[in-house]
Design brief:
Layout lengths: L3 H27 L3 H9 L3 H32 L5 H8 L7 H12 L4 H6 L8 H24 L4 H9 L4 H29 L3 H6 L6 H11 L3 H25 L18 H28 L2 E3 L3 E4 L2 H8 L2 H31 L5 H12 L5 H12 L8 H11 L2 H11 L6 H7 L4 H12 L1 H17 L18 H7 L3 H33 L1
Antiparallel strand pairs: 1-2
Amino acid sequence: MKNRGFRGTRVLVAIFLFISVICPLFALLANIKLADIETVIQSPQFVPMLINSFVTTTIATILSVSLALLLAWFMNRTKIRYRSVFTLAFTLPMLIPSISHGMGLVLLLGDNGILTNVFHINAYLYGYNGIILGSILYSFPAAFLMLTDIFAYEDYTTYEAATVLGLSKKQQFLTITLPNIKGPLISVIFATFTMIFTDYGVPLVVGGKSMTLPVYMYREVIGLLDFSKGAIIGIILLIPAFIAFILDMKNENKGNSSTVTKPFVIQENKRRDHIAYMICTLVVILISLPIVTFAVLSFVKHYPSDMSFSLDNIVQAFELGVRMYLLNSLAIALLTSMIGVCVTYITAFITARSKKSFSNMALHLISMVSLAIPGVVLGLSYVLFFKGSILYGGIMILVLVNMTHFFASPYLMAYNSLQQFNTNLEDVSITLGISRLKMLKDVYIPCTKATIVEMFSYMFVNSMVTISAVSFLSNFKTMPLSLLIPQFDSQSLIEATAFISIVILLVNIVLKLSVYLVKRYVLPKES
């Protein structure tokens, strides 16, 4: 009786997830022609593509996670100042599309790049080197944020005891820190591997002759409209993603098994802090170079022959439709964020604040499945399932695919926040005759405003930068701004491409700054 009011909502959420997640995946499987499986696997380029994808992804993942681990340790285990500034700088690469990182490397280290011409060097960018460098730029900020969060929940009591027993800092790191973060670290490694393995933006620009599986899939579907072969590659791309997903599910309850009884005490160590300053500053400079390059090239006449100041490229970019595509991006990002926050929050409310029934556990599992679906695979599956429907070809299908693509993370934000409330609140409210809707409106939402703002921010930023999920679904009228980057790049409009990357970055910085101001000055007054 007490759940009757939410049965309808639960059914609607279940239908939404079934249509937006499960049905497209079945459509992907259903569109595979058995004859094409043999054709793809036995083709001369398949094994080299698989090797290219696996080797570059493995090397980039090791380097990316190592860098993220080092930076997260510096932010949490040293006494350096301006940590918030460093943290913001480290996450700047997340605010531009992955393909922009490839473009930035071309502008800096390509055959006619700025650093190439200034220092007369040959970085041999195109191929493995470029893919690995671009993938590190693209992936390490997400790994850094995940690892920073892990370090924040370490208990100092064990380290205090180890110090008393005479264990050195190195021994403490090897015997306490690494075992403590081993489970979450494995999840971070697989999540980073999946990000890089399924990305086609970086290898599309700097891959050269080293074609990867996502690039092949992109060219087969966009260039040749061969959906069957694209679906076969899509299934292959799902394999590491589902391994990561299973590991995440296994580690889900292990990360919070300990309670922080004593916050970490950082000892004085000037040598350590100086090293941290130098490395952090160097990383900020290196990741800022592509962004600075974009900013400079946006205002030059023609790179590299005429570097005089000019607004011609910006005028040209607007003549080519930047204004319309920017409005498309803003509309898609806003709709995705507003509708997505509502759906993910309600779903989390149902699963976190109801008894662990089979239906609730199924909803939770399906909500998490989107973590295991790469954007390029999801986009293709949406083409196959929704083609011919009323949604296909309109802006709402781009909103829907983005909501599904980014569903899991904001869902988990809300789910974890709502689980912090006392488990008996629902029983008390029923005893007092207070409806669940009123509890949601008057208790849960007011107490989780900061989480809701972060959910909105996450969906907005990712909707602005994504190219994978929407590349198969957009057309001339609905195309978001990020998809102009590969289009302009193919036309050698380098300066216009740089300007678009800066526009996307500025929009996301404004959004992030607004979120910061809202959380700092608005939410405390209303709480």
